[in-house]
Design brief:
Blueprint (H helix, E strand, L loop, with lengths): L6 H13 L5 H10 L17 H6 L23
Length: 80
């Protein structure tokens, strides 16, 4: 199989090999493939982090009337 790499990917591979973390290209590919999900669809490693409002807006609980009010503690207060 012949694979063409983007110049930035080739540069990163060379950097990984020079770092000593990997001994050859097969080790790099094994690690990359191991990070993919078992269902066959790769996880996006480059996805940015979401903000808290985005997280809540995309929640499956969005729009439900859930009350998150905390009940008062029922234990007696102890002065130390």
């Amino acid at each position: 199989m012949t694979v063409e790499l983007k110049p930035e990917h080739e540069r990163r591979i060379h950097e990984l090999l020079k770092s000593g973390r990997f001994h050859d290209l097969d080790e790099i590919l094994d690690q990359a493939l191991a990070t993919m999900s078992c269902e066959g669809s790769p996880k996006k490693i480059t996805e940015g982090k979401k903000t808290l409002p985005q997280l809540f807006a995309e929640s499956p609980f969005h729009g439900l009337a859930i009350d998150f009010e905390r009940f008062p503690d029922s234990l007696s207060r102890v002065d130390l």
